[in-house]
Every structure is written in structure tokens, then in C-alpha cells.
């Protein structure tokens, strides 16, 4: 298997990778097998708006080795703007598929981020569901900026385990910033899985398939956490639609 060159299409201010789901999965496995220091951003509407509002964060995401269209609005946006049939490449699908592929192909995986309770639940889950998986590390970092000594210790620990895929669950934009800072320091493929980990281990439920296909997965999440997500969705979803319409019809700011 060879690494397939990436094509990108601009959605708002982000360069979204346009390949089918299987191609992107294969590329992540390739990067991991060859211990290529790299990172993958899994982009949704929230990330698009965060990047649009913050040029520094935009550069971090656009410097990633791949930016997958996690949200259905992004996949449909590519179709609407460019006429390209684009698969949705969601973290909630990538995570279990990568775990299964890693188990089958003998890749070493490391989980970074989340609370200690979440990491304990993750370790128990993967031992049960992926008994042959070589899960070499589970680490919950402190909820503050790391000291230089702590950062060096984490890099050393990941290298010691021989991890080839590092699943990063810090939430957006923290996980993307961390992965960017670790590129060239950690010889593994890092992938930001955000909210996919709690869903995988059963802490949260995923929307039914029909809601996913109708681009309503965000609404299902909102129903579960209305207080936390109301302000975010009211702002990001409306702004995304407004900016996408401007892009479609070439309206300048």
C-alpha cells in the first residue's frame, strides 16, 4: 500500500481533504506503519468556524497531513460548491475502524487525553472488544498547560511504548494545537478524535443512522447536552450557513 496524494477543497477558510473514506483510512494506516510524524484533523462545523475566527488556529488545521470532513454539512458543502460526491469521514467511524485495522495489522496504539476515569474505561473497553490490540498507553494529562519537563516526559513515554497511532481526545481546538506542537517530536500518526471516544466506550450515545444521513447528528448531541451546546450551535451553525452561502455566490465581505 502506498500513500495516496491528497487533494483539497476550500470550505470557508479550511482546506478539506477530498478522498473517499477507504482512501483516507488507508492513508492513516500508511502514515502509522511507517512511523511518520503526522497529524489528522477531523473537521466539523465547529472547527470550521473556530478556524475562520482565529487565523493562528486556521494555520494549524491547514498544516495537517489530512483534514477529514467529519460533519455531513462539510461533505454536502463540497458537493454543493464543487460538484464532488464526498464521503463523510467522521471520527466516530474512524476510531473503531482504525482500532480494528490496528488489531489486525499489529499496530501499536496510544490514547492521550480525557479524564483518568475515561482512560480507565477506554482501557477496559479495548481489552474486551479488541483483545488482540496492542494498546501500549493510556494517559490523562493535567487540565492545565504542561511544563517543559512534563512535555518531554510525555514525548519520551510515547517513544518508549513504540506507539504508531496516537488517539488524541482533548477537544477542539486544544487537541489540534497539541498535535501541531508534537509534529516532528512524536514519530507516530496523531489523530484528533474529540467526542468520538465517549461515544465509543458508551459514555454517550450516537445519533440514529437516519439522523446522521440528514445532517442532524449535531441536533442529537444538543438534545443530550442542551445547556453546554446551545450557545455554540446557535452561533456556529448559523454563521456556517451564512458564510457557505457567501462562498457559493462569491459575495465578498
Brief overview:
This is Glycosyl transferase. This protein has 253 residues and is α/β, with parallel strands linked by helices.
Question: Would you kindly provide a written description of the structure presented here, covering whatever features stand out?
Answer:
With 253 residues, the protein is an alpha/beta fold. It has one domain (8-200). It has helices spanning 21-33, 45-53, 55-62, 72-82, 91-105, 116-129, 148-161, 174-182, 196-200, 209-213, 217-224, 226-248; strands at 8-11, 14-17, 38-43, 66-69, 108-112, 134-139, 165-168, 189-192. The chain has a six-stranded parallel sheet, sandwiched between helices. Strands 1-2 form a two-stranded antiparallel sheet. Helix 8 (174-182) links the parallel strand 7 and strand 8. The longest helix has 23 residues, at 226-248. It is globular and about 50 Å long.
Explain the layout of strands and helices:
Elements: E1 8-11, E2 14-17, H1 21-33, E3 38-43, H2 45-53, H3 55-62, E4 66-69, H4 72-82, H5 91-105, E5 108-112, H6 116-129, E6 134-139, H7 148-161, E7 165-168, H8 174-182, E8 189-192, H9 196-200, H10 209-213, H11 217-224, H12 226-248
Parallel strand pairs: 3-4, 3-8, 5-6, 5-7, 7-8
Antiparallel strand pairs: 1-2
Protein name: Glycosyl transferase
Organism: Cloacibacterium rupense
GO molecular function: transferase activity
Label this structure with key terms.
253 residues; alpha/beta; two-stranded antiparallel ribbon
User: What percent of the residues sit in helical stretches (DSSP H or I)?
Assistant: 40-55%
What shape does the CA trace take?
globular
Secondary structure class reads alpha/beta
The largest sheet has its strands arranged as 4-3-8-7-5-6
Portion in beta strands? 5-15%
State Rg.
18 Å
Total DSSP E strands: 8
How many separate structural domains? 1
Give the CA-CA distance, first to last residue: 44 Å
Q: Roughly what is the average pLDDT, rounded to an integer? A: 91
The poorly predicted ranges are none
Q: Oligomeric state of the chains? A: single chain
Major sheet details: 6 strands, parallel
The SSE string, one letter per element, is EEHEHHEHHEHEHEHEHHHH
- Provide a count of the helices: 12
Amino acid at each position: 500500500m502506498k500513500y495516496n496524494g491528497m487533494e483539497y477543497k476550500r470550505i470557508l477558510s479550511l482546506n478539506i481533504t477530498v478522498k473517499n473514506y477507504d482512501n483516507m483510512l488507508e492513508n492513516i494506516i500508511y502514515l502509522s506503519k511507517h512511523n511518520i510524524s503526522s497529524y489528522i484533523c477531523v473537521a466539523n462545523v465547529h472547527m470550521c468556524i473556530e478556524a475562520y475566527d482565529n487565523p493562528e488556529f486556521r494555520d494549524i488545521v491547514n498544516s495537517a497531513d489530512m483534514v477529514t470532513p467529519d460533519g455531513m454539512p462539510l461533505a454536502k458543502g463540497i458537493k454543493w460548491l464543487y460538484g464532488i460526491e464526498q464521503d463523510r469521514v467522521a471520527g466516530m467511524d474512524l476510531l473503531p475502524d482504525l482500532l480494528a485495522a490496528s488489531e489486525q495489522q499489529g499496530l501499536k496504539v496510544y490514547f492521550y487525553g480525557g479524564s483518568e476515569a475515561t482512560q480507565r474505561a477506554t482501557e477496559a473497553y479495548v481489552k474486551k472488544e479488541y483483545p488482540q490490540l496492542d494498546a501500549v498507553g493510556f494517559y490523562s494529562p493535567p487540565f492545565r498547560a504542561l511544563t517543559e519537563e512534563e512535555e518531554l516526559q510525555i514525548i519520551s513515554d510515547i517513544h518508549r511504548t513504540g506507539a504508531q497511532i496516537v488517539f488524541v481526545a482533548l477537544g477542539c481546538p486544544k487537541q489540534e494545537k497539541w498535535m501541531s506542537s508534537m509534529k516532528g517530536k512524536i514519530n507516530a500518526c496523531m489523530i484528533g478524535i474529540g467526542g468520538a471516544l465517549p461515544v465509543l466506550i458508551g459514555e454517550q450515545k450516537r445519533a440514529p443512522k437516519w439522523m446522521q444521513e440528514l445532517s442532524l447528528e449535531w441536533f442529537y448531541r444538543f438534545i443530550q447536552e442542551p445547556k453546554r451546546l446551545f450557545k455554540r450551535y446557535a452561533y456556529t451553525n448559523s454563521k456556517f450557513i451564512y458564510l457557505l452561502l457567501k462562498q457559493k455566490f462569491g459575495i465578498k465581505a
